[in-house]
Amino acid sequence: MKKTKMMKKNYEFKNILSKGNYYTGKYIEAFVKKGNKEEINFLGIAISVKVAKAVKRNHIKRLIRENYNFFENQIKTGYQIVFLWKKKVEIEEATFFNIQKDMENIFKKAQIIEEKL
Looking at the DSSP assignment, which residues form a beta bridge with residue 4? Predict the structure, then answer.
């Protein structure tokens, strides 16, 4: 299993959000930046306070993290990824399968997922 570290510092998020490539889905947005010289990926999840209260925000974070773990073995290494929840999307639409489809489409657009033969 590949190792993924979580980003926690504000300057790490700002760096990816300003210099990373932007990909969008129906529910989530992603900023992806190549250039990590290590053989691990860095993952960041940010959800605005305006979207919902803490319990719902943490639920969305858990869903995104779990979906990322589902794809982790297929993702190429050396990337920094930040996921954002779209503000205009209702919280009730946050289901495991909706996020999974969205994340798969984003990874294919970004060409960071290794296709299985």
Answer: 41
